[in-house]
């Protein structure tokens, strides 16, 4: 088993997809153990650490990587299986910001109402108990919320020598902020440049669908990813697979276009997998599909389209990469 460990120094963190050299080169079939910093770079540590004071804008949402996968070329697909995602600290933070989030005026939704207050919440993370403890800032209310670790940001370098801020989700991946990106899930990303150059970051101890206030329970993570390369198979938008579901993503503004992209990708994918006519697949997906919301606060919004594999005849997708990587990950965990 080929295992690579990487913990970046602060100056090695990346804030773009594309525009940066690889931090390492790996072979397909490698398991990567990585540390990812939270979206504030670890600078917001208490309720008194306002991001506007302790963070350097626009250096937010750092990712670990990018990693060059040997043999990856444009037109191929990278399969990244999340073996484990574990909070690296016993605390995490969340915040509201002026002009950011779904329920406030922004630079593109101009309003005369006052901007939201900048407020920080600190959560206690109890991995052994499996909870994140919420504490109200303006009252005595507390609540234990189940941990559901995930990564908000995963992607590859865009094509045409483009560099995109990590906060922007698009066809290359990026800050999709979907709670579906948890351990046990494989994400498929289309390769745009030699080596793919994938990176991962923005760990969340948990997050509601939509990331409505603009931040989740933001946490540093110790994450393990199994990597495979699917040669000669392209992927137009990031796709996800777990043991029971297939999922397509779409990122755009307005939100209905992100919805349309994800549904279009899933309908055409389902047609290809089953041999159904496109309209027959459209009808089937319309009746069996779900539409989880990724984010409604970033520079692009993200929607998912999700169907149970059982209704499609449990097709083998991407040369059964999910099953192989899942089994590799289980063997890794058993031997760790």
TrEMBL record:
Superkingdom per UniProt: Bacteria
Gene3D superfamilies given in the database record: Acetamidase/Formamidase-like domains (2.60.120.580)
InterPro entries, alphabetized: FmdA_AmdA (IPR004304)
Gene Ontology MF term list: hydrolase activity, acting on carbon-nitrogen (but not peptide) bonds, in linear amides
Protein name: Acetamidase/formamidase
Organism name: Streptosporangium album
The organism's taxonomic lineage, starting at the top: Bacteria, Bacillati, Actinomycetota, Actinomycetes, Streptosporangiales
